[in-house]
Amino acid sequence: MLAAVALLAGAALPVSARSQSMAQSPVQTRPPAVTLGAPVAVCPLETGFVSDNGGLTRARAAVRSGALRILAVGSSSIEGIGASKRELGFAPLLELGLESRMPGVDVTVFNRGIGGETARETADRLERELAAGRVDLVIWQLGTNDVLRDRLVEDVFADFHRGEAILQAADVDVLLIDPQRLPEETLNAAFRGRNPALGDMARRISEEGRRGGYAVLHRFDAMAGWSGLDRGGVGPDDLHLNDAGYACWAEVTAEGLAPRLL
Asked: What is the pTM of this model?
């Protein structure tokens, strides 16, 4: 099913404060609404951007119980770098998007993104992150920095498999998020011509999802339809998402994930 959602400047959006620390107890009431500033766009939504690959069984059970706890790890796009406000990053907006699609389910997204990480650094800290508190689903965004740093594909997936072993031992579901797409017209020589390699990384992550039974969000493919967003959803540095990009990414994820959890 293909639809489109308007992201309108000045639209009032209630923002949850829960997607910050696993040490905090879930907040039961929402703070005052925050007003979106810049984004004026139409975000194409399609449930097919998420493949469940036979996974998400634990997350579905959590949804049936009325509470879903999600740990989001990865680099700057999980952390929210580029958003004009912390609450306009991916993790807080995903929390809202899932709750709006699953009435009566309390969703908590713990934002543990660290800008600049590759798969190696994320795998190194996964065990510590999981020890901080029980979660039902781990979102692992990976691949972009690995490509930009010219890491060997074999090394990237050796690190992924280290992390995979930790996730399996923790008995959690997994949603993999593949790399972002970069502006074709970028003037940054370090980014120019990188989309073919990023697309290859996305395909390899999709293969790993099918092999391991992990859900995958096909972000690289989704971003091909973002021409209607401000700067294609990417900020002036041609790397980090802007408010429109974060809003669309969160909506695409929630649109694809929620029906697979109900």
From this structure: 0.88
